[in-house]
């Protein structure tokens, strides 16, 4: 029997449980990327001024929906406008094309409306801004050869192309109820995810190197960790699910075969992968602590729902009431004083990299 494709997308943008209202932490990661995006745009425009630039193509990978979808590309377009206003002489017309990518299940209706308003807002700026939507996996070719000048991406590239096959085939769960097994198995589980991420990120770099012009830039940020043996990015959702399984509210068997396609690398790991692949110079890498005080436990729990609900509903068939119970359980676990609190608010970071496609 063919296995059903895992439904990887955020909750639809609108509504209380939607990604638009529940993505404050991701938005903080985007603001940390602003200086690197501005620097990349300046670099591109200065480089291009020698042969009279007349166009720039910018793409965002894994844009999702809601206000975050356009945040990075608008930072880039603002930087273009700022650079041109500061220029001493008239630089002639510049055409900017903005392309937003995500998986086909994404809420592209929301993205289309935002792109339209964005385009209208730039009409008096002197730029010719055109926009487009590019559905598809960033683990496949998305754009023509030598086409893009700048790639941006936030909070998306830690999603892997699939769950490590060896975990599924050996029926090794992501999280063991048995504490002895849980302590013994993390290196095995994490190693499988580590290898999957290395394979995927290497492929992603190869594909994007073909699509970027020589000297093209890439500024990306992923959810990571300072120490991959301490905390894994899926714990915040697996631990409350485990609590619900212990109370008989969801099936233990179903939990044991629930896998999430994601991995949070350390900055050292990410650097090694980029260097080993070899298409890009690393201009800068940064690590930012996820500031939990940005949001309250209930907001953090709702943010998890916005990200994971479609996958959880698809796998467990949970009702909206059970999803509410999951959010309440996580909220309790994230509250100071809970036995899970220290672990769940552990050393989570965003790792960002500013890269240049080698000439
Ligand atoms: C947490 S959201 C991040 C959205 C936005 N960039 C932000 O910073 O708030 C992650 C997005 O990555 C998308 N995504 C995951 N895997 C993908 C893939 N292989 N190709 C394209 N998009 C993917 C998901 O559908 C989701 O919309």
From TrEMBL:
Gene3D superfamilies on file: Methyltransferase, alpha-helical capping domain (1.10.1200.270), Vaccinia Virus protein VP39 (3.40.50.150)
Xref: Pfam families: Methyltransf_7 (PF03492)
Keywords linked to the UniProt accession: Magnesium, Metal-binding
InterPro entries on file: MeTrfase_7, MeTrfase_capping, SAM-dependent_MTases_sf
TM region(s), chain numbering: none
GO-annotated molecular function: metal ion binding; methyltransferase activity
Family annotation (SUPFAM superfamilies): S-adenosyl-L-methionine-dependent methyltransferases
Keyword Metal-binding: yes
Family statement: Belongs to the methyltransferase superfamily. Type-7 methyltransferase family. SABATH subfamily.
Protein name (record): Uncharacterized protein
């Amino acid at each position: 029997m063919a296995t059903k494709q895992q439904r990887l997308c955020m909750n639809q943008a609108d509504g209380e449980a939607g990604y638009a209202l529940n993505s404050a932490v991701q938005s903080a990661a985007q603001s940390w990327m602003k200086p690197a995006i501005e620097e990349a745009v300046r670099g591109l425009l200065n480089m291009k001024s020698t042969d009279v630039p007349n166009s720039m193509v910018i793409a965002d990978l894994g844009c999702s929906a809601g206000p975050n979808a356009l945040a990075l590309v608008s930072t880039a377009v603002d930087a273009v406008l700022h650079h041109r206003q500061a220029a001493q002489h008239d630089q002639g017309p510049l055409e900017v094309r903005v392309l937003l990518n995500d998986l086909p299940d994404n809420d592209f209706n929301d993205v289309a409306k935002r792109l339209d308003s964005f385009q209208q807002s730039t009409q008096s700026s002197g730029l010719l801004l055109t926009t487009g939507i590019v559905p598809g996996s960033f683990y496949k070719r998305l754009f023509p050869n030598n086409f893009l000048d700048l790639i941006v991406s936030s909070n998306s590239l830690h999603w892997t192309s699939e769950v490590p096959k060896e975990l599924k085939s050996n029926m090794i769960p992501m999280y063991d109820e048995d504490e002895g097994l849980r302590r013994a198995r993390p290196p095995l589980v994490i190693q499988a995810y580590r290898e999957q991420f290395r394979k995927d990120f290497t492929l992603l770099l190869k594909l994007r190197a073909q699509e970027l012009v020589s000297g093209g830039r890439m500024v990306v940020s992923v959810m990571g960790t300072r120490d991959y043996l301490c905390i894994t990015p899926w714990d915040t959702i697996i631990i409350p699910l485990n609590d619900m399984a212990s109370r008989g509210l969801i099936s233990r068997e179903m939990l044991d075969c629930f896998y999430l396609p994601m991995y949070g690398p350390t900055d050292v790991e990410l650097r090694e992968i980029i260097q080993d692949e070899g298409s890009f110079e690393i201009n800068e890498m940064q690590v930012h602590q996820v500031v939990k005080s940005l949001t309250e436990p209930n907001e953090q729990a709702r943010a998890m729902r916005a990200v994971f609900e479609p996958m959880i509903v698809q796998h467990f068939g949970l009702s909206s009431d059970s999803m509410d119970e999951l959010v309440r359980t996580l909220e309790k676990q994230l509250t100071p004083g809970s036995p899970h609190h220290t672990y769940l608010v552990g050393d989570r970071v965003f790792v960002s990299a500013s890269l240049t496609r080698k000439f």
